[in-house]
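Technical note accompanying the year-one report. For the benefit of new consortium partners, we illustrate the data format agreed upon in the data management plan: each record pairs a sequence with a structure-token string. No post-processing was applied to the example shown here.
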Amino acid sequence: MMRPRWRKVLTDLWINRLRSLLVVASITIGLFAIGTIYTIFLVVSADTRAGYFAANPPNIYVRASLFDEDLVKRVERLQGVRQAQGFRALSLRVKTGEGQVGTSGEWSTINIEALPNPGKRQIGLLGLEQGAWPPGRREIAVERYKFPEIHAALGEEITLELPSGRTRQVRLAGVVNDQTLGAFSFAAGFFMAPIQGYIDQDTLEWLEQPRPELFNALYVTVEGDSRDATYVKAVSERVRNEMEDSGLTIISLATRDSYNHPNSIYGDALVGLLLVLGFLVLFLSGFLITNTLQALVNQQMQQIGIMKSLGARRRQVLGVYMMLVVAFSLVSVAISVPLTYGIAFEIIANLATQINSIFQGRRVLPQVILLQVGMGLLVPQLAAFVPISQGTLLTIQEALSGIRQNVLPSQDWLSRWITRWKLLSRPTRLALRNTLRRKGRLALTLITLSLGGAVFISTFNVQLSMADYVTRISRYFLADINLTLTKPYRIERIQNELAGVPGIDYIEGWAAASCELILDDDQAGEAVILLAPPADSRLVQPLMLEGRWIQPGDENVVVLNERFLSEFPEIHVGDTLKLRVNGDETDWDVIGFFQMAGKSGSFLSYASYDYLSKLIDQPFQASTFRIVGDHPGMSQAEQTALGQRIEERLRREGIDIGEIQVGQWLSETASRGFAVLTGFLLFLAVLTAAVGGIGLAGTMSMNVMERTREIGVMRAIGASNRMLMRMVLIEGGAIGVLSWVIACGLAFPISKAMSDQVSQALFGFSSGFVVTPNGFLLWLGIVLVLSAAASFLPARNAARLTIREVLAYE
């Protein structure tokens, strides 16, 4: 036979089904949020690391003049080298969008790797997604990330533009996954990387590549611990010396360990922030439990008195209600654990594609289950202990008389002011005054709903802050068209050739060079991109951190991006920096540091065009041009049309084009990476909003339940159902609006904290704080809908009760 205490627990669960549902829902959402985020943290961290390591990524990447297989074998015999793999790296243009109806397609850059036998690739292993691997002669496989941009189906032919301007068709054989894409940051990371293709070396001759049997790039893996940066640098120096002793020119050299996935910073930024927000959701659930149990104890004071009059000790009464909380917890855990398993892995599978990770499949994570069970049992108990403990302190006389329940709290100045406000109708004044009757409950409800709203609003502010950061990066790419030619041309000639193209206002020629940083021990360090616009360039508006920008008359001076500050803190303004440019060591004076792309960018520097162009023996010449349209704010369609006109003119004049890129491309590509973060922030914002809505629904239900007799009296003296419903809806709306006001104030510090968390993880510094009205207005609409929805059911239930039922209510 069931013991009385368990019968009471089950009765409370079943009779007050709406209240039980609200409590279970709030605990479940909190546990689901924590479990989902912890699952994402464990699985994404493990899968990105395991998938990257399994691809056998290169630890050393070298671009050099042409070399043969014999040199690759000599490198492979060097001390510390485990494997070496030579390949041909080339950059062409591919026609994208050609398969779309109503379009002839556009030209985009495609980087291609060619191996003698792609099927026996040893370093940077590829995973087949669709089609066949390896590609045969005159076939190509494409990396999955940018594959949709080609708009071609497997088996179709895609068009490649050769250096001569002629075109070739190659068959699209497969789609592959390359975990190393963006690993060496030459294209500013994964999200900025162009379309990537893979071919057999036999196809090179078809693509007009000279001496197709030779290589110009080398991948190397090291023996031992690749996480030892000093050791990997030492091995890379042996590789460099061997190649230079063979008469080769090293264009660039970069190193990386075998564990650090190129997009790990995005995962760290995402999970770190979501974990904090997940605990916030659980924290809000605790407030809701406190609120609900407080109302439960108030409602059941007479039952507590009866139990005590029958001999129940305080500890036994306390145990009954704590068992009720345990029952809530067990039901919530039973729902949240399978719900987490079902949804979390769907999220991870989608996220893996977006950050170029390999999803290793669903698995049971005991640590997640233990966390959910532990938090599910502990947090509700902690939240419920205080109100239950206070309620069980009542004497038998207090409990049986219900004195604490029926004596109204004294009116404060605000309640008295509302009573005297004659501009409002009497029912409206009564509804507003009722809002303030249970100030403790109101405070807990406002905390829950306001924090949820503040996080929701902050998500939109973070989105705008990230968009603002993209705009700040664009200050270094202000041109409407970025033109790269296959070889240097005199700047004056290009300006003259394009003078007759409609839509052009201004043209700048820039010098550029890939170089390497020479460390104190005279060993080459990281690869550095060196750009040199005219000293009076209108197309760069730097964000200076220290020092100054380039001025007319400067010679061997250089301005460095913020990654130098984080990786080489010993470098300061005024120091002399050694750079190997085109194989020659040169000294440069550091005159400043600028802010750009933080951890996700390359080592980037700016110098004077006049000095660098002479240093690389290309005075008055350039292969990189920045072109500005004849009116500001050109749309992407206008930029694309201008680029096509420029290309047609240069083709007619026999000038070979390497790449034409519209200015809007940068913003689109950078925003794509941030969209992953902000999308998950919105996911958490919805959860916090749900907890807030449940809290409001619970508060309104308890408020109406406690005033059941008052409602009966009002019905008895003539109050209509419509008036009663309107009063409850006004009360809910007042709580919602008040919470919105508080949420607006909280949104500012929370937005700043969230923006700083993301930007610190991604860029290594705090980003600018930007506020948008969109989140504030949207949350106002949502909170009004939540208030109406949370108040409607209690209002309808109150209106449907008969006068006899409400006057007899205990």
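Partners are asked to follow this layout when depositing records. The CA atoms of residues 437 and 656 lie 79 Å apart.
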